[in-house]
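Quick one, probably user error.
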């Protein structure tokens, strides 16, 4: 979401009477790729771009295709296939070794429903959203068309596709929480290829505490593009933290914070009584991740004093919080906790990639 917000901000800063733009989007990936489906790159007609679609090996060529889409005012689709050992192929030798499909779409600022405006609406949501995009079509007038999914698929004006089929694909994508590519045969006998993109909301991080280590954690969360909420003692927090946080609340206001499916709570007040008091408050909200700083024996003591909670068997509760990386400094501890949050939200164990069997990313 951080990249989407940056793209929107740069798009808004443009003088559209002088600069035109195109959006390069990764719409399909096979085998290895540095970026996944949904990676985007906003390209201006003067060659300046924001975002990225690879680790750097494709951006130069993507710039040319984006500018071509701008000047022709026509979308195009390019396949970068680096799986074969062809020294003339873009990306070979730079660690790609995959097949990446990129869609280049010129953006019309006069169109109130262009893809940038759809992304603007997505960025404001605190729940997952989906965008349906035509990524390949024999009828080139359909290529690059995108539709933001609301409560159902009826707002999607794709008469070539049966509404029942579209509704089923959208429902399945929502349940899987992963992007999906489907092909459909239109009434005229043409093959239409759609990407149903599943876009997660910004991660919401609730930090409970007011000591100096909160600053280190908030700094890492800012780099990750997370929405930061701090619960503690406002008068003891630094001014810089107020600038980073979406909200700063007192301990007594903790119950007013809203929690969604992509919320992480970390108790790091260094005050046993506050942690013991607030742990049940946040557990009741059922965040996807809740961690508590401190040694195991601290959690065990709390368990004995909170007999109604079964802390050992709560899958979303982590204490001690963080991955085992031998962290010592506040910054390293923040890194360990943030890494565990990411691993939890991705359904991964947090082990070294060298021991992983199969591909890094699930298909």
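Nope, works fine. Designed sequence:
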């Amino acid at each position: 979401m951080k990249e989407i917000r940056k793209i929107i901000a740069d798009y808004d800063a443009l003088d559209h009477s002088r600069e035109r733009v195109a959006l390069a989007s990764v719409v399909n990936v096979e085998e290895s790729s540095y970026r996944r489906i949904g990676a985007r790159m906003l390209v201006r007609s003067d060659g300046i771009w924001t975002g990225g679609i690879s680790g750097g090996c494709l951006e130069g060529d993507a710039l040319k295709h984006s500018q071509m889409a701008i000047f022709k005012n026509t979308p195009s689709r390019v396949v970068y296939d680096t799986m074969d050992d062809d020294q003339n192929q873009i990306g070979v030798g730079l660690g790609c070794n995959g097949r990446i499909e990129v869609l280049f779409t010129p953006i019309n600022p006069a169109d109130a429903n262009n893809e940038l405006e759809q992304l603007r609406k997505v960025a404001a949501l605190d729940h997952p959203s989906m965008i349906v995009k035509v990524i390949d079509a024999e009828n080139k007038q359909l290529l690059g068309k995108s539709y933001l999914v609301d409560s159902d698929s009826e707002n999607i004006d794709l008469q070539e596709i049966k509404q029942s089929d579209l509704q089923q694909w959208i429902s399945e994508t929502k349940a899987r929480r992963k992007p999906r590519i489907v092909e459909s045969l239109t009434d005229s006998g043409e093959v239409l290829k759609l990407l149903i993109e599943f876009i997660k909301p910004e991660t919401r991080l609730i930090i409970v505490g007011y000591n100096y280590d909160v600053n280190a954690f908030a700094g890492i969360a800012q780099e990750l593009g997370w929405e930061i909420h701090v619960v503690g003692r406002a008068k003891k927090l630094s001014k810089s933290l107020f600038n980073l946080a979406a909200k700063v609340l007192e301990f007594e206001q903790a119950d007013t914070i809203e929690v969604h499916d992509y919320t992480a709570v970390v108790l790091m007040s260094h005050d046993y009584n506050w942690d013991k008091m607030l742990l049940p408050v946040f557990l009741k909200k059922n965040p996807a991740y809740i961690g508590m700083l401190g040694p195991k024996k601290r959690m065990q003591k709390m368990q004995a004093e909170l007999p109604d909670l079964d802390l050992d068997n709560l899958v979303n509760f982590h204490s001690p919080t963080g991955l085992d990386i031998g962290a010592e400094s506040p910054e390293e501890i923040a890194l360990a906790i943030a890494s565990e949050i990411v691993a939890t939200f991705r359904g991964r164990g947090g082990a070294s990639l060298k021991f992983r069997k199969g591909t890094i990313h699930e298909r």
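The chain has three domains: 1-111, 125-201, 204-346.
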